[in-house]
Specification:
Blueprint (H helix, E strand, L loop, with lengths): L5 E6 L15 E2 H4 L3 H10 L5 E6 L3 E4 L3 E2 L17 H10 L7 E4 L3 H16 L3 E4 L2
Parallel strand pairs: 1-3, 1-6, 6-7
Antiparallel strand pairs: 2-5, 3-4
Helix pairs in contact: 3-4
Length: 134
């Protein structure tokens, strides 16, 4: 299977490692999220993705080896939450070199995808393909 240029976004989850081990300390993002949708998405994405990015409403685009210091509960589903802005996500996308991919697959929900589409809109107009797997 050709893995060239496949970027996959997986959703963070409410369940986090600190729910089970409150004093464990900072952890890599790949170890933080314990929800079944995260575990399933990462397992499936690792079969065909060149790169997996965890999409967090608080932190934005996380590499799997980025560290998170402590638990949090921020989601795009609640308007009152202090979520990352689309402008900040665009800056992250540049710094993390996310715009050069030909194909993006997202396992995220509707409100998360709305933000992804806003970030990558210009690139979609130039031929970037975004597939949604919910």
């Amino acid at each position: 299977m050709n893995h060239k240029n496949n970027l996959v976004f997986v959703p963070c989850t409410k369940g986090k490692i600190w729910d089970y081990f409150p004093s464990i300390g900072p952890q890599k993002a790949s170890n933080v999220y314990t929800g079944p949708e995260f575990i399933f998405s990462v397992r499936l994405a690792s079969e065909y993705a060149d790169r997996i990015i965890i999409f967090s409403a608080k932190y934005g685009f996380l590499e799997t080896d980025d560290y998170i210091d402590q638990t949090y509960d921020v989601t795009f589903d609640r308007k009152e939450d202090p979520c990352i802005s689309v402008d900040d996500l665009k800056v992250q996308a540049v710094h993390k070199d996310l715009f050069h991919y030909e194909k993006i697959t997202t396992f995220c929900g509707q409100l998360y995808n709305k933000n992804l589409y806003a970030v990558f809109q210009q690139h979609q107009e130039k031929g970037m393909i975004i597939n949604n797997v919910e």
